[in-house]
Design a protein that fits this description.
Elements: H1 8-20, H2 27-43, H3 45-56, H4 60-67, H5 69-83, E1 87-89, E2 98-106, E3 109-113, H6 121-133, E4 136-140, H7 146-159, E5 165-167, H8 172-180, E6 185-189, H9 192-203, E7 209-212, E8 218-221, H10 227-239, E9 251-255, H11 259-274, H12 290-297, E10 304-307, E11 311-312, E12 317-318, E13 321-324, E14 341-347, H13 350-358, E15 365-369, H14 373-382, E16 387-390, E17 404-405, E18 411-412, E19 414-415, H15 418-423, E20 425-433, H16 450-456
Parallel strand pairs: 3-4, 3-6, 4-5, 6-7, 8-9, 8-15, 9-14, 13-14, 15-16
Antiparallel strand pairs: 1-2, 2-20, 7-18, 10-13, 11-12, 17-19
Helix pairs in contact: 2-5, 2-6, 3-4, 3-7, 5-6, 10-11
């Protein structure tokens, strides 16, 4: 951890000086740092489990979602040698004789601001891309997940030179100080409103940003489904981490014909997962703090409870809850829920359902359950979202080969796998000309050359 007495500008200056040495551009250096990060994660697995348990009452099984970042490290180590190679591209006849290539180069000193809901994974995963691309990095873990923030800072300080990678803990005032500085890239994961603040601050320095935000991710359920599997996959995706997942299905939009059966099956799935009293389940998380719990409690004042609805403020507990009788104008439909409350709406025509979704800001994820391939293609063709998962929820996040990110209000840019390397790299275009020939077609005087230029332009 960087002590508060150390000025952020000093840390930034140290990293800029270290980056200027060119050491981070060396392939062997990058791979060595990735291996060091992997070892640090492996050695601290019990501490990571303990920290997210303290912050969110995360069960050990779900805590390993945080540790799954190791797969990102392994993927980067395996492919980095090919990623860093310049890529040759074709040149047109008017450039003859010449060659053209695209060179990936690191952006410089980057800032990564993490969220509280998956406070280790979503802090370390983008760091993998920053290291692989050859950058120096300042990390700002979320102070709301205090135990994990302290652990991230400890792991970073014990394993990396702060002139290369540093972790800065603190609240809003520290974030404001960081955002006042000029970085070469800012990577932020969090809510849309804070994302706007980050982008505004970055604009003052013309700093590029990656914004991993959220939104109300719809879950459309067609009549042509396997009821039991659909219910389990929706309930799992909604209620892991007590609904505090940026790509959790925010609300259900269900074909009226299967709605009663689906709701019964979801209620049964909740009971199967967490027992008769989820408050006593070792597998159910807690809300991050009482402020968020109070916000969620307001959503329970409208609609018909199908399941759940129990609240314990002292325990930061709200049971897995399903609410029917909700309209598009209900308070629960006005903002991202980010908690274990699943409102249910219904439709008769898929086209109407699509129109309702398209009338709202583009979500980070969109889920569609249906056996009908024509309907699947229609949803893909007629909607826009950061990503789509058909016949499941949340699992798309774990596919390293798929870039993850939002669109519109749900974010800018993407990462995971090669996309992480791309995010933290500048692709420099390079044209190399030869001295063997110097064709005179482009030089003045231009008399008699107009027909030639027309032919060259096609």
């Amino acid at each position: 951890m960087i002590p508060p007495i150390v000025a952020i500008s000093d840390i930034l200056s140290q990293q800029q000086q270290f980056f200027a040495t060119g050491k981070t551009k060396d392939l062997s250096f990058r791979i060595a740092q990735l291996k060091r990060l992997k070892e640090a994660i492996s050695l601290n697995q019990p501490q990571i489990v303990e920290a997210v348990k303290a912050d969110l009452n995360r069960p050990e099984f779900e805590a390993y979602f945080e540790i799954a970042t190791v797969s990102e490290v392994n993927y980067a180590i395996k492919h980095l040698k090919s990623w860093v190679k310049p890529k040759k591209v074709s040149t047109s006849i008017d450039q003859f004789p010449a060659s053209a290539s695209i060179y990936p180069e690191p952006k410089g000193v980057v800032l990564i601001i993490g969220p509280w809901n998956y406070p280790f994974q979503l802090m370390i995963s983008p760091l993998v891309g920053a290291i692989a691309a050859g950058n120096c990095t300042i990390l700002k873990p979320s102070e709301i997940a205090a135990y994990t923030s302290a652990l991230v800072a400890e792991i970073i300080s014990q394993n990396f030179d702060p002139a290369y990678i540093a972790a800065v803990e603190g609240g809003v005032e520290i974030s404001q100080q960081l955002l006042a500085e000029k970085f070469d890239h800012i990577f932020f994961t969090g809510g849309t409103k804070i994302g706007q603040v980050v982008m505004e601050a970055a604009a003052k320095h013309l700093t590029p940003v990656t914004l991993e935000l959220g939104g109300k991710s719809p879950c459309i359920v067609d009549s042509e489904i396997q009821i039991e599997y659909t219910a389990k996959r929706i309930a799992w995706g909604k209620f892991i981490n007590a609904g505090q997942t940026c790509i959790a299905p925010d609300y259900l939009l269900v074909d009226r014909k299967v709605k009663p059966d689906l709701l019964r099956a979801i209620k049964a799935s909740i009971q199967e997962f967490y027992g008769d009293d989820p408050a006593k389940s070792p597998d159910y998380c807690r809300i991050i703090n009482q402020r968020h719990l109070g916000r969620l409690a307001e959503f329970l004042k409208e609609g018909e409870l199908i399941a759940g609805g129990a609240i314990n403020l002292e325990d930061r507990y709200i049971s897995p809850t399903v609410i029917d009788g909700i309209s598009w104008d209900s308070p629960v439909m006005k903002e991202e829920i980010f908690g274990p409350i699943l409102p249910v709406l219904e439709y008769d025509d898929l086209g109407d359902a699509i129109a309702k979704i398209n009338a709202r800001p583009k979500p980070l994820a969109l889920y569609f359950f249906s056996k009908n391939k024509e309907k699947q293609e229609r949803v893909l063709r007629e909607t826009s979202s950061g990503g789509v998962c058909i016949n499941d929820t949340v699992m798309q996040f774990g596919v390293t080969f798929l870039p993850f990110g939002g669109v519109g209000d749900s974010g800018i840019g993407s990462y995971h796998g090669k996309a992480s390397f791309d995010t933290f790299s500048h692709y420099k275009s390079v044209l190399k000309k030869s001295f063997l020939l110097d064709l005179k077609w482009r030089y003045a005087p231009y008399k008699g050359k107009v027909d030639l230029i027309k032919k060259m332009l096609g």
